[in-house]
Specification:
CATH superfamily of the largest domain: DNA polymerase, Y-family, little finger domain
CATH class of the largest domain: Alpha Beta
Number of helices: 15
Number of strands: 11
Distance between the termini: 33 Å
Order of helices and strands: HEEHHEHEEHHEHEHHHHHEHEEHEH
CATH topology of the largest domain: Dna Ligase, domain 1
Shape: globular
Number of domains: 4
Structural class: alpha+beta
């Protein structure tokens, strides 16, 4: 999606359209969650301190984020993907991979599918998407970023050989700012430079990642598109614009994460044996905590109880301000064919409640009804 948070705000607030808009907290430690394309012309960008963005664009409009609204539209968009293929791998709230290999006879050539997908998203939501088409994930992601906003880019194997060499090594998946800086210090600035480096030298510098970098540098990527139904885990996470220092505020976000994950489990008829939390701090240190369930479950109340238990035990002993909180359902499998002879009435009521909420939200829009926090 194109500048997703900012585009949603401009969709819902006509007075913001055509103007430089920043989504984020306008405070001392505020960070830009999203910048409209009008603001990007002044050098504003996501993850930038609000104070810096205001210096670059003093007349920018600043509005706080509305993550419930973003999640609502995200879920609508992800459902639209299934018009074209069941093989959809969600990556984030505004991005996914689609494998349309098996859809060509039904829906036409890849470019036709991409155009129709873009039109469907716009007609149903009023938002624009940029689509990249290629033979693998890396090139498709690269293509999706090359012609924004409202873009459609196709990278064939021949086209990849033409455009890749001149690109910065920072465009390769897995190479962050620190790794890029290290490569530059070695005289490797472009993908062409990386291709010329001896594999043995790169292995000495980057270990097992060296082979991965070289494969991507030649446009090769064999990672499959893995839908929820085949995934080893289903997760949901949120990065805050500023570090959140109130445990209750972080805890409340977990409720939304669990509802999202549980809904996806039920849609794909999967049960989870394990619940895991991912917690990242302002210095980017990340910890993971997990708990095994007494029995496999897709029930929101059971997953939530486990997530709360993990969080409360950690927070009671060592809470620190949180930059990112994530929840995952792991060790997934299908429901057992064997049914309990005497089902617990409380379990039956909990399942009926989940299915009722799912039906209401799928009919009237996600967030139409939800559980209250505690």
């Amino acid at each position: 999606m194109d500048a997703f948070f900012a585009s949603v705000e401009q969709l819902d607030h006509p007075e913001f359209r055509g103007k430089p808009l920043l989504v984020g907290h306008d405070g001392l430690r505020g960070v830009v969650a999203a910048a409209s394309y009008e603001a990007r012309r002044f050098g504003c960008k996501s993850a930038q301190p609000i104070a810096v963005a205001k210096l670059l664009c003093p007349h920018a409009i600043i509005t706080p984020g509305r993550f419930d609204r973003y999640r609502e539209l995200s879920q609508q968009i992800h459902l639209l993907f299934e018009h074209f293929t069941p093989i959809v791998e969600p990556v984030s709230i505004d991005e996914a991979y689609l494998d349309v290999t098996g859809s060509l006879r039904l829906h036409g050539e890849p470019q036709t599918i991409a155009q129709n997908l873009k039109q469907l998203i716009h007609s149903k939501t009023g938002l624009t998407a940029s689509v990249g088409v290629a033979g693998n994930k890396f090139l498709a992601k690269l293509a999706s970023d090359m012609n924004k906003p409202d873009g459609l880019m196709i990278i064939t194997a021949t086209e990849a050989e033409r455009i890749l060499p001149a690109m910065s090594v920072g465009r390769l998946w897995g190479i962050g700012p620190k790794t890029e800086a290290h490569l530059v210090s070695l005289g490797v600035k472009t993908i062409a430079d990386l291709r010329r480096m001896p594999a043995e030298f790169l292995e000495a510098q980057f270990g097992s990642s060296a082979e991965h970098f070289l494969e991507l540098a030649h446009g090769r990527d064999d990672r499959p598109v893995i839908p929820d139904s085949e995934s080893k885990s289903i997760s949901h996470e949120q990065t805050f614009g500023v570090d959140v220092g109130a445990p209750d505020a972080v805890r409340n976000v977990l409720l939304d994460h669990v509802e999202q994950v549980a809904w996806r489990l039920r849609r794909h008829h999967l049960l989870a044996r394990r619940v895991s939390l991912k917690i990242r701090f302002g210095d980017f240190k990340t910890i993971n905590r997990s708990r095994t369930l007494r029995h496999p479950s897709d029930r929101t109340d059971e997953l939530l109880a486990a997530a709360y238990q993990i969080f409360d035990e950690w927070a009671a002993n060592s809470f620190s301000p949180v930059r990112l909180i994530g929840m995952a359902a792991e060790s997934l499998g299908p429901p057992s064919a064997q049914m309990d002879l005497f089902q617990d009435p409380n379990q039956a009521r909990a399942q009926e409640l989940d299915h009722a909420l799912d039906s209401i939200n799928e009919r009237f829009g996600k967030r139409a009804i939800r559980r209250a926090g505690n």
